[in-house]
């Protein structure tokens, strides 16, 4: 069974494979350790855009954190203290995200044939833990302390808080809009809706900046509301409650980011349109009759590792079959998002992957499940 549909799936970026030059066949193993030209170019372009987004967020957070700290010291506001802790935590996290962006784009080598893409999720995981440990914990603790202290009474000028929060909203909003622009651009390229793409894609730095800046804007509104209620009623508890709510908001965001990065670090087979797209790419090749097994795994931001078994047409000698498989692997690795492809020849007794009796993803050639 051969399909003529080879367009990229809706949730994967870049242009269709038909518009890309295919790599020439090679038997040199060193050649296959280097990314294809299109992958290398696309990676640098995407990385530079992500780095601009993170740097803008870092600058905004440092300026905002300094202003909030000064305001918290002068006014004694619990909500402003929570916001200062929030912004300092975010600023530290942006440094982790810069490490993530740089680490993930290192070229693969002999010891790391699948590249260093998972480093992006590891550093992003550290950043998410920082949000929880520094931002959420400190904000909730300080809010509860203020709430339980009947003598706690901010003595500063409320106007200072409002001015600082207003400036912070503008700076955080600028960073947030940059993450939205980048996310919308990538979502258009992949044919996905904006929000599902940002929250569910493998681009951990974009997701982190978007989530943290969004939480920062909500936190500013909570702080302003708590300070305003304190000013209007004279009840300091509103200020403390705002601090606690800001901390809980940060905890929710941190847990979400931790879970997303954990899922990508653990890895797992990818199905749906992504898997169908790879099958279509393989079965559109004139030398392939059908695919009997396919495993697709995300090994980095927009980077795939593909393992498959194919039934080749004809009855060529072993060395010719090896050259055919290598040529197919090289052609697929010319796709921007495909990092590494490993193919093997299927047994003539194995059914097509479209057959209901086809092997499950975990029952590939040579697997314990298949041989048992």
TrEMBL record:
Residue stretches in coiled coil: none
Q: Which domain of life is it from?
A: Bacteria
Q: What is its main location?
A: membrane
Instruction: Give the bilayer topology.
Output: Multi-pass membrane protein
**Gene Ontology biological-process entries:** intracellular zinc ion homeostasis; zinc ion transport
Keyword list (alphabetical) reads:
Membrane, Transmembrane, Transmembrane helix, Transport
Molecular function via GO: monoatomic cation transmembrane transporter activity
Span list, region Disordered: 1-45
Boundaries of every Cation efflux protein transmembrane domain copy: 54-262
- Gene Ontology CC annotation, any one: membrane
Cell location: Membrane
List all membrane-crossing ranges.
52-74, 80-100, 121-144, 159-177, 209-229, 235-258
Q: Please state what the protein is called.
A: Cation diffusion facilitator family transporter
What organism is listed for this UniProt entry? Schumannella soli
Q: Recite the lineage of the species.
A: Bacteria, Bacillati, Actinomycetota, Actinomycetes, Micrococcales
